[in-house]
Amino acid sequence: MLNNKVALVTGASRGIGRAIATRLAKEGAMVVINYNGSMDKANEAKAEIESFGGKACIMQWNIADFDACKENIEKIVAEYGSLDILVNNAGVTRDGLLLKMTEADYDAVLDTNLKGTFNCIKFASRQMLKQKAGRIVNISSVSGILGNAGQTNYSASKAGVIGLTKAAARELASRGITVNAIAPGFIETDMTNVLSENVKAGAVAQIPLGAFGKTEDIAAAAAFLVSDEAKYITGQVLCVDGGMAM
Known about the structure:
seven-stranded parallel beta sheet
């Protein structure tokens, strides 16, 4: 259980982030729901958590903004007295073939997915170092392991998250802080729901288990990695992908 723990989940207004925030709240954590542009969705996520007696608040900022990360994470610590769990979930896509990809589309994805993860770890770890305890989970992707045509920016950012995870794990381990990554495969979200049936069928054909995963599958993995049961696990990448990257 995560009673009396304070958790920050970035990009938690929908999809995987919302599922993780909900699961951590069910485990007893006080959850900070970070969002950038979807205030209505963030309020819905908060209401869902409060509907079963969970504790949550919402905070808006862009994790790609270094100063905003510093300011808001300091606010969390000042308000709640600690920061025990960080789940770096927020991410964006700007898909396109390499030869046609613009510099702006490349930079936007790296700024949010990779730099944003760095920003949050940098400032959250300050409090965790003082506490000599903490759990950090970074959401990578099977695209960061296998690569994916049309996603050179996204694949690069998610591969970078894996390297960042391993380096941060080595730096922070001596102070009781674990840092791990989850690499989801095809998960049923708003992003996959808009795919054509042909594209979905092609994706399923690549998955040994023969189906898309659920957001709850990722949430369960995150809940394990931030629990005491995972206290001896750090620097690892847990693929939750139906066997795609085996």
